[in-house]
Amino acid sequence: MPRKPDPTRKPELLGQILDHLTGRTLATVSFRTLADALGVSTYVFVYHFGNRAQLIEEIVRAVVSRLDHLLRVDPSSLDDEGWRRFMADAWAEVSTPRNLQLQRLEFEAAMLEMVDGDQKGIARSAVSAWQGFATTWAEARGVDPVRSEREARLFTDGVYGLQYDAMATGEIERVGVAFAAHADAFAVRVASLSAAAV
Fold this sequence. Notes:
Layout: H1 9-21, H2 31-38, H3 42-49, H4 52-65, H5 68-71, H6 80-94, H7 97-116, H8 122-140, H9 145-169, H10 172-197
């Protein structure tokens, strides 16, 4: 009788793969390179992931989902101070060395999705999720939907730029100060737009 598959094995492998990919690119991923690095048979990857394209998709999904717990917060429940605290906590998490390496992989995946013409790609959708989060917060503060979406896009794109800065320069503390100013400026801007709408 065949052995039952271990449901914990695939997530365990994904965790090991993500650890292996810190300092490497998605372009280097193959069943052979991963098998050699992790000391397992290539069959293990075929069994759990099917083919290379499916493996890459699972890797990208794991990379993008690492911060999903942050998006489970209801932004409309945050007042101005709650927004600032949430953003400070979020930055503390996204700016860890490991998460910056995973963000680099997310950027790489988004570029590959763009080249492939994958409009609804996993990595590309992460930007929309954060834009939606900031839009919901601005709308809950009283800003009209069109303006909320525009301001949220400016804010989110700035956040992604700051993450890129942190990766490129390694100046996490200095970029963190800029991030705090950026989050505060967004809160002030939203409050101003909300007051003007009354």
